[in-house]
Design brief:
homodimer; alpha/beta; Alpha/beta knot; 2 domains; 12 helices; 12 strands; methyltransferase (chains A, B); Alpha/beta_knot_MTases (chains A, B); methyltransferase activity (chains A, B)
Amino acid sequence: MATLLELDDPADPRLRDYRDLRDVELRKSLEGEEGLFLAEGEKVVRRALEAGFTARSFLMAPRWLDGLADLLDRSAAPCFVLPEALIEQVTGFHVHRGALASLHRRPLPGVDEVLDRARSVLVLEDVVDHTNVGAIFRCGAALGFDAVLLAPRCADPLYRRAVKVAMGTVFSVPWTRLPDWYDALPDLSSRGFTTVALTLADDARPVEEAVAGLDRVALVLGSEGHGLSSRWEQSADRRAVIPMAAGVDSLNVAAATAVACYVASRR
Amino acid sequence: MATLLELDDPADPRLRDYRDLRDVELRKSLEGEEGLFLAEGEKVVRRALEAGFTARSFLMAPRWLDGLADLLDRSAAPCFVLPEALIEQVTGFHVHRGALASLHRRPLPGVDEVLDRARSVLVLEDVVDHTNVGAIFRCGAALGFDAVLLAPRCADPLYRRAVKVAMGTVFSVPWTRLPDWYDALPDLSSRGFTTVALTLADDARPVEEAVAGLDRVALVLGSEGHGLSSRWEQSADRRAVIPMAAGVDSLNVAAATAVACYVASRR
């Protein structure tokens, strides 16, 4: 059972895991070095623990204790209890959904394990915005995708903002980093996937046509700013586009993923 | 031609339009009372002016002047020029894309005007998140929707964050507020639109089937938290759902809109 520790000093060193949550650079180095990630909100904390992650600690205001009592009962980690105003001083902003947990990261699985029995896969090249990464996971989970593969520079799915936007689906959808950027797509092809790159390239065909009748599909998505690298665009088996109205730049990558996942889910 | 005014005091009262951009409540009252809105980034500022909005003023660091020189040439508004560090003191955060403009709002058009010749319309009930409102506009514009109607409590499409996420499509897609919440959907039906509410209701049918073969369609979307009000859900002509994987709550409203707009664009 978690030990409840009522604290009254926001500078208490035991609260280090929860400091300055909006300072992206600080958080990246802290979370990487310590091998931790944060879950925010009762529902997301619950999903992290149910997915088998182990808590380092919890932090919440008194009114959130009841809702998480069953989880705290089953955890050996300390639960720091502070008034909301002091929590805000630690985290640097008002945590709307109250409860926070700091959890241990686990080693990432290998590509073989993630792709085992997968039929529909998302492959993200350099999606750098945590909100987009989270939205893409939520969307893939909702529309029946089995796995997500990330290029080395793609943003971290376990970053707090990504976890929150994903509504915890980053815990349930298998994912990992690709070890080799250059040959990532040919490697997927050799494993029996048809790689379909979403792009505005001239030879792209409508996405519905590009995925029609395929068995194993890997939908490939590029960065918010400039899309896919030319290497990935060219090494994909097919290039696909979502037909759009004239004069509009494009859909945002999360919206494009939603459409492409929907279309692929009905192939 | 815009007058360039080099300022060195972030407290200068002429910079009032740009103050504390992350303080949502302050911005709402300031922008409402003054009848202004902000555009951020060269591309979005350009689109606002090209759509016929009149600038009250501009604010930028020296390095952004060249890119907007043609627009400044054609405007009578003052352009305040400050070093980036001082701009950050005014706005309360680092403005990544440099240029800002404060523009005059215009009276909202009537529903008749917005719906004139429209065939595909989005109707938002209480979407309260500015990011979602912006994403929905961008998506509607990209997928050929002709107009957007907003319930009284829906978030403001001209709020800075919505404008930015929408990539300025809030300037080009006709939109207005619905004067009457209660009978909004029956009124659209009487104008010849089939109102299709996205919902998880038991009698919802797959969205593809719900829009098949329709001429004038109004896609109806509800709040992030609890979806549509029962009045709107029940007074829509049809209820539609995006088929999803078991165990996932739902798609976020922006992702659901992307899928529904795509499906409706191919009806």
